[in-house]
């Protein structure tokens, strides 16, 4: 099946189900995360897979800012099942699947165009899926897909770097707001490429978390321009609203440097100062590939490649907090932490699914 048919196939089969029931957690945008009605345990039908799908029994899921944004805006209301990080076991394969067999342990972020991983059994296109690291637990694995793909696409797709050891030796990168999920794996990947790393943080918890990674300098983001003094960087990556640090970034980017943001902004960014120094700016959104049927196999292949580095001990899981049992109560607690904006690393709910009795 061609990439161009991906969204159409997802649309046709989103609501086609087997009669067998499964546990799932559904969301409602009309309530704050502190309200029990914001996320509810339910019994729903198990999805029927298409010819290129895997049916995966979920072992663990992770939470990300995109979950809370989609819940709050209702943009995923057609599915009502969030969840964009998973580790699980392949229980069934579509007739045209070539990359996996039943019994394989896999991990993936998936797509916002179909129901997410907050269900006991999920149907997922094989091209979005990677082989799970052999040496990680389910929780360690579930923490990694979305952030790993985001970091990989920043380095490879946006900055044009070769994903090999020492491939960017001597280059300098500033990561703004680097203690979260994406920052924690981006710093590891960039160090693997040989990049000299600087990162911003403020709280002692974030500074302590970052000390485990190969960072040259940690800057307090308050008075960042002054703290950076005369430093210049080949790459600046925004993991926070870029408008808050835009003027500082423009002053500290090298000629022909590159700036990348994974966070949107409602404030216009003045790109004019970049013109005469040949610098560029790009957006990174990991779901754009599956949203627009663009080279989605590259994500499954990237996860395969990243898993090798996990098993080699070159990259480490960024798992920080684990909730035992996947249910609406624990998911509300995890989402509340994400919505606070004060987390380090990743939060994971470890299976089994519990609580979906209705």
Describe what you observe in this structure.
- The chain is an alpha/beta fold.
- The protein has 2 domains: 3-144 and 289-353, Medium-chain alcohol dehydrogenases, catalytic domain (Quinone Oxidoreductase, Chain A, domain 1, Alpha-Beta Complex), CATH 3.90.180.10; 148-283, NAD(P)-binding Rossmann-like Domain (Rossmann fold, 3-Layer(aba) Sandwich).
- It is built from 12 helices and 15 strands.
- Helix 4 (145-158) crosses helix 5 and helix 4 packs across helix 11.
- Residues 4-18 have low confidence and may be disordered.
Structural key phrases:
358 residues, Rossmann fold, 2 domains, 7-stranded mixed sheet, 28% strand, globular, metal-binding, GroES-like_sf, oxidoreductase, zinc
- Supply the CATH class of the largest domain: Alpha Beta
**Average pLDDT taken over every residue:** 92
Q: Given the structure, what is the number of helices?
A: 12
Classify the secondary structure makeup into a structural class.
alpha/beta
* Low-pLDDT residue spans: 4-18
Shape: globular
Enter the CATH topology name of the largest domain. Quinone Oxidoreductase, Chain A, domain 1
Total count of strands: 15
Outline the biggest β-sheet: 7 strands, mixed
Number of domains: 2
What is the H-and-E element order? HEEEHEEEEHHEHEHEHEHEHEHHEHE
The CA-CA distance between the termini, in Å, is 37 Å
Tell me which CATH architecture of the largest domain applies here. Alpha-Beta Complex
The Rg value, from CA coordinates, equals: 20 Å
Percent strand: 25-35%
CATH superfamily of the largest domain: Medium-chain alcohol dehydrogenases, catalytic domain
Helix coverage percent: 25-40%
